[in-house]
Specification:
With 276 residues, the protein is of the alpha/beta class. The protein has a single domain (2-271), classed as Rossmann fold, CATH 3.40.50. The protein has helices at 2-15, 61-67, 98-104, 119-129, 136-146, 150-153, 166-179, 196-209, 222-228, 255-260, 265-271, and strands spanning 21-32, 35-46, 50-54, 78-86, 89-90, 105-108, 184-188, 214-218, 231-239, 245-254. The protein has a six-stranded mixed sheet with strand order 6-7-8-3-9-10, sandwiched between helices. The chain has a four-stranded antiparallel sheet with strand order 2-1-4-5. The radius of gyration is 19 Å and the shape is globular. The protein starts with a helix and ends in a 5-residue tail after the last helix.
């Protein structure tokens, strides 16, 4: 295990050696009380690319993703060991404000969760509480355009965001995240609750957004990872002490290499459909 993980960390570093790093995980382990959910992850996330986390259920993908904007802080028993850096700064340093972290590193969740407010106020709310002083109408329009939703809602901005279709609601949540002007957007299974047409719209959106943002997505859909991501990290789970399972990083490389010529047998077995 240790030899494999050391090899993986060298692979991941070499894969993006010539690119700027937005997020870096160094020997990261995550615990919930005495239970270890993730073990010894080394990972560099490059700027302005889409990085996908794939792997079977229970392998720690979402747990690690939530570490990147300190959402795990909201779980009383959670503890993060190792170091996670954002643009060279330790995200868990004592002087790092977790609220500011979450403004700069936004999150889009698995199930669309628009506020019970108008479409306009869904976008404006976060900007207001973050002290936005510019032209709110322009911000709302710009955010909705960036989320490829403006043409569909421009004549009904005062209607409830809850009245939109599932796919539109998810794009509204993406627009709401964009409005607070983050640098990184995290997406946890953003298409799992959507129909194929809506999924395609969100995937097209990911392609366009990486020009402005660094993006990290968790997905169980390997075809989606192959379609939308530049880098892919494959995680798996193993039984630890007492029979509990912990997640670990098996392999991290350019997406094309992960799916066409993986270096680890576990990765090959997973992407070829032998398990998972």
């Amino acid at each position: 295990m240790q030899n494999m993980q050391s090899s993986t960390s060298r692979t991941s570093t070499n894969a993006i050696a010539d690119q700027a790093v937005a997020l870096r995980a160094e020997n990261v382990s995550v615990y919930y009380g005495a239970f270890q959910a993730v073990r010894n992850v080394f990972l560099d996330v490059p700027k302005n690319q889409v990085t996908a986390f794939i792997g079977p259920s229970g392998c720690g993908k979402s747990t690690l993703l939530r570490c990147f904007n300190r959402l795990n802080d909201l779980v009383a028993s959670a503890r993060v060991d190792g170091k996670i850096s954002f643009q060279g700064r330790d995200l868990y340093a004592r002087d790092m404000d977790p609220v500011e972290v979450r403004r700069r590193i936004g999150m889009v969740f698995q199930k669309p969760n628009p506020f019970p407010k108008s479409i306009y106020d869904n976008i404006a709310f976060g900007a207001r509480i973050n002290g936005f002083r510019g032209n709110m109408d322009e911000l709302v329009e710009r955010s909705l355009r960036s989320a490829a939703l403006w043409d569909e809602v421009k004549d009904k901005l005062n209607q409830s965001g809850l009245a939109l279709s599932g796919g539109q609601q998810q794009r509204l949540c993406i627009a709401r995240t964009i409005a607070i002007e983050p640098e990184v957007i995290l997406m946890d299974e953003p298409c799992s609750a959507l129909d194929p047409v809506s999924t395609l719209r969100v995937e097209e959106l990911m392609h366009s957004l990486k020009e402005q943002f660094t993006m990290v997505i968790v997905t169980h859909n390997m075809q989606q990872a192959a379609r939308v991501s530049d880098m892919t990290a494959f995680f798996n789970a193993e039984a630890g002490e007492g029979g509990s399972r912990f997640g670990y990083l098996v392999e991290y490389n350019k997406t094309q290499d992960i799916f066409s010529s993986p270096q680890q047998q576990e990765t090959h077995d997973y992407v070829s459909g032998r398990f998972g």
